[in-house]
Amino acid sequence: MKYLLVFDFDHTIIDENSDTWIVKCAPEKKLPNGLRNSYRLGHWTEYMGRVFAYLGDNGVKEDEMKRTMTTIPFTAGMVDLLGFIGENKELFDCIIVSDSNTVFIDWILKAADFHKVFDEVFTNPAAFSSTGYLTVQNCHAHHCAKCPKNLCKTKVLKEFLDKQLERGVSYTQIAYIGDGGNDLCPVMFLKKDDVAMPRQGYTLEKKISQLARDLSPVECSVLVWSSATDIVSYLKLLIKE
C-alpha cells in the first residue's frame, strides 16, 4: 500500500511564482519593457534565460539571488502538509514536477529543511556558469501538443511510473496537487482511483470545471483545496482506511 503524491511547485508548494519573484533582484525591482515583451507563448524557459542574463549583466550574484528566493512564503497549510508527509514517508512517495528550475527549488526546500520529503524533483535544469550567470535549459523534449515546449508533465509522470514498476513499486493511488494550466495534461492522464487536487480559484480548477460542463469530465476524482491542511485531512482519512 503506497501512495504517490505529485506536486507542482509555483503557487502550489510556494505561494508565488519563483520565476517572477527573482525580478526583485533587478535594478528598481523591474525588467526593461523590451525584455518583458520578448516572451513568446510556450517559450517561457528561453525567456527566463534572457532574464537571468540581464540579472548577470547587472551584477546580481548568486548569494543575493539565494537570499531573495528563500524569502518566498509557503502556501497556507503547506508546512503542516510537508511535515505530515515527512512523518509518514513509509506510506508516501513524493515528487515535484515543475516549470521552475533545479536551483530555485533546491534553495527553497533546503532552506526550510523539506528536501528530504521529496524522492525526486523534475524541472528545468539550471546552474551557475563560470562567469556567475544563472543559466537554464528545457526539462526535456516531447511531442505533446497540449504542453509548453520545455515540459510535458504527463511524460515525466509516465516515465517515473514505468521506472518504479521496473523496481517493483506500484501505487494504490496517485494524488496530483497543482494549480496551473500545464497541470491539466497530467490530471487527464490519471485513472479513476486517483485524485486531482486543484488549488481553489486557480487555472487548473477552472479548466477541470470547464471539462465537466462540456460533458467530458476527468476520469479521476477531484478535491479542491484552499489551504494545504485540506490535503492533510484527506491523507489522514486515506491512511486510516
Automatic annotation (TrEMBL):
MF-aspect GO terms: metal ion binding; phosphatase activity
Residues annotated as binding Mg(2+): 8, 10, 179
UniProt keyword annotation of Heme present: no
Position of the signal peptide: none
Domain of life: Eukaryota
Active-site residue list: 8, 10
Keyword line: Hydrolase, Magnesium, Metal-binding
Residues given in the record as substrate binding sites: 19, 99
Cofactor(s) required for function per UniProt: Mg(2+)
Record InterPro entries: HAD-like_sf, HAD_hydro_PyrdxlP_Pase-like, HAD_sf, Pase_PHOSPHO-typ
Family, similarity comment: Belongs to the HAD-like hydrolase superfamily. PHOSPHO family.
The protein's name: PHOP2 phosphatase
